[in-house]
Amino acid sequence: GVPIGAFSTLLLSTALLLASLTTAAPIGTPHSTVIPLTTKTFDSTVTTDSANTLWLLKFYAPWCGHCVALSPILDQAASHLSGKLSIGKIDCTIEKKICKGKFDVRGYPTLKYYRDGEFSDYPLGRDLDSIVSFGEKMSQSAVKVVKDVARVYEILV
Hints:
The protein contains six helices and five strands; from the N terminus they run H-E-H-E-H-E-H-E-E-H-H. By secondary structure, the chain is an alpha/beta fold.
């Protein structure tokens, strides 16, 4: 059999790994997992964290089939977009003050993004490629410095 010490070490290692996968990064650290948001944590996490200034927010209900199907896609996107786009989720069956009061959510899942102090409707597809592409483009600088006119035409065409 397996020695008890080795089993205990394996069990502890597994517990620590699971904890690291489900624990949000502290304020000021880029997020690489989907962050559960509540009425208490929403504003301090989304609107004031200087390391995470661009957010994709999923407003959902646990019983919603489309919401459940979107979860693994957002999990993958969160790890890929760490430092560029943070992803948060709000359970609207619990956080009614945010969902109904602040955002007037009427269907699930509802996706919004936050950037530069404003919340807007997420405009693209709900597949991994669309979400990653959105995060990559939205996290880029709005201005590109070019050295000559030929480079301008390369960028535009």
